[in-house]
């Protein structure tokens, strides 16, 4: 690494943290009441490696659970601690659990291997529920700038009420920088890995 490059990157990270801290100090309530200048979505994987043969099963995907720090439209940045702050003037297109729920459903539908996938209240005669918990979904700036996504999943047999299987899926992807576009780009890459692995796992179980 050229002399001074590491110091320069460290200075950028420190400046970014200060900016986020100032925005946070101004009050998240004030940020939430201000219309964001940009709304961000997530992409769903178009294909899933290792998917099983077509199944006649139908799967219900409830909204993921999440702690308050992630149950929001705000795009999270996590420093050592972990300490949560958020990108100012930027937001997800809906609360993060709803965005992730939509992308789980879309990923499973994209496989073309299931008879039906849907949300509660859509009238499916379901065989399984895919219950999920958002454990992490953020840009981490605690030394190496990277997106980190972690989702715990439990597949419940809806006819017996018993858990069929459970697993934690996670991925981290280096971010090209610390602005919101670069952060969301890295988060999309990380969630693509997580949802692809989750969909292949679901298809093997049903």
Automatic annotation (TrEMBL):
Its signal peptide is 1-32
Pfam families from the xrefs? Answer: ABC_trans_aux (PF03886)
The record, for InterPro entries, names: ABC_trans_aux
User: Where on the tree of life does the source sit, at the highest rank?
Assistant: Bacteria
List UniProt keywords, sorted A-Z. Signal
State what protein this is by name.
ABC transporter
- Where the record annotates domain ABC-type transport auxiliary lipoprotein component, the positions are 40-199
**Keyword Signal tagged:** yes
């Amino acid at each position: 690494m050229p002399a001074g490059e590491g110091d320069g990157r460290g200075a950028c990270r420190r400046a970014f943290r200060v900016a986020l801290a100032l925005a946070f100090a101004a009050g998240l309530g004030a940020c939430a009441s201000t219309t964001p200048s940009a709304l961000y979505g997530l992409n769903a994987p178009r294909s899933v490696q290792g998917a099983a043969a077509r199944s006649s099963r139908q799967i219900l995907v409830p909204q993921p659970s999440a702690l308050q720090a992630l149950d929001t439209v705000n795009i999270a940045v996590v420093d050592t601690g972990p300490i949560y702050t958020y990108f100012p003037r930027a937001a997800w297109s809906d609360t993060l659990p709803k965005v992730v729920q939509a992308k789980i459903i879309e990923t499973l539908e994209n496989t073309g291997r299931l008879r039906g996938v849907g949300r509660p209240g859509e009238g499916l005669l379901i065989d399984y529920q895919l219950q999920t918990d958002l454990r992490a979904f953020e840009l981490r700036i605690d030394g190496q700038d990277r997106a980190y996504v972690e989702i715990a999943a439990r597949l419940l047999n809806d006819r017996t009420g018993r858990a069929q299987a459970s697993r934690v899926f996670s991925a981290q992807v280096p971010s090209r920088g610390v602005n919101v576009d670069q952060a969301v780009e890295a988060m999309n890459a990380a969630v693509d890995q997580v949802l692809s692995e989750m969909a292949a796992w679901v298809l093997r179980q049903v």
